[in-house]
Amino acid sequence: MTIRVVLDTNVLVSALLFETGRLAWLRRTWQTAAITPVLTESSARELIRVLTYPKFRLERPDIDRLLADVLPWCEIHPGPIQAGQLQVRDPKDQVFLDLALAADVPVLVSGDGDLLALKNQLHPLLILTPAEFQIWLVGP
After folding, report:
1. What is the pLDDT of residue 90?
2. Contacts of 122 by beta carbon, 8 Å cutoff, 6+ apart
């Protein structure tokens, strides 16, 4: 069974850029259909924007290849997305919380402290770090 999940941009970028990094397992997880990342148009645009950061030194063909490694496995939530009942301290992170709630996914995966601060406030939505998510996926 595929689990629909919202991955914040930093988690997605880490999984895509660092093929032997600590989040490389996530790429294999969506490419084997164990999870389906859920995006909005705006979060997909944000992913593309972040991949163009000079610090990553990616050329357009590199970005296209990385996007081809994730977008075919994603679900695009059609929106519109209402502002959530809970506000995230950092307004830039609000989109991930609102998307997780609107798309009715069971898990939001983030390493961001502002999102993780809401961890136990949105039952049944789980807000997990990537490491916690990996353990959760394996199950008991």
Report:
1. 78
2. 86, 97, 101
